[in-house]
Structures are given as structure tokens and as C-alpha cells.
Design a protein that fits this description.
Layout lengths: L1 E4 L4 H6 L10 H8 L8 H11 L2 E4 L1 E5 L9 E5 L2 H7 L5 E5 L1 H10 L15 E4 L9 E6 L13 H12 L4
Parallel strand pairs: 1-2, 1-5, 5-7
Antiparallel strand pairs: 3-4, 6-7
Length: about 170
Amino acid sequence: FLILGSFPSAQSLERREYYGNPRNHFWRIAAACLGRGEPHDYGDKLALLRDGRIALWDVYAACERRGSLDKDIAAGAANPIVEFVAAHPGIIALGLNGGTAASALVAILPAASSLPRLAHTGDSLLWTPPFAQERNLLVTRLPSTSPVPTSEFRVAEDKLPLWKRFFTIQM
């Protein structure tokens, strides 16, 4: 699995840790999806990812942004996601952590990649990337693990069913 966020929060960058804001729901959700207790030490968090065969990255390698809100991202410079996925044939699914990650991924892919827009949280599709015609990757727009509540997802427990469904895929 490859989970793509948009860009790390200011707190994550300061701490040099993925999902470093202690209020972010990512680690609680990932642990619940894998049937484990929530890790608190960053070493234990990384072990959770290794055990679950989960890679984390961001669509943007750099951007301009005041604060940590995705809506404030400007001038995003993309990570080489296509190349990374092509080089790692064990990746069977891409989980897009929130709407910004989903729309940013579609925007940065070459036109030939033909990944349709995932309009709604929970939308999934099978994608045959042009660089690997023999592969079908599940791509899912997941609820953002941000602690900022939305009308549909106020707390981590609201997000958990869609995340669990993503992690239980069998391809």
C-alpha cells in the first residue's frame, strides 16, 4: 500500500515525522485498521507501517503555504510518484489521504496516465497505469486524517469504516 498525503503540516515538518501533529487521526486509524494498539513513539509508528507493508509519501515535495491547511497550498512541486510506483511493483493500492491529495495526484500525472478524478470521499477505481499495463492498482480517496472536522467526518471513528475497507482489499 502507498498512502499519499498532500504535504506535511508545519508540526510534522518541525518534528520531522509523518503525521507529527498528535491530534492527527492517522496513527489511530492505521493501528485500528491493522488490529493493533495505537503507537506513541515514532519508532513504533514506523514499525507499524513496516508490519502492515505501508509506505507513506506526499503528492507535493515542496509548496508555498502559510500554516498547515491544505486549502492554503500554492505553487506545489510534485514528487516523482509515477516513477516510484513503477519501481515498486509490490504496490497494489494507492490511498489518497483527503481531497487535496486526490485532486493533486490527478493534476500532476501525465495526461497519458488517464486517472479520472475521484469526486467523493470513499470513491475507488482500478487504474491501469500506462507505465505498467500488466498492473491494476486500486486508487481510493480516503477521508483526511486531519483533526479539522468536516460535516461528514467529525472524529476519527467517522473515518474508520472507509479506511478499514481500503485496507481489507484483496487483489
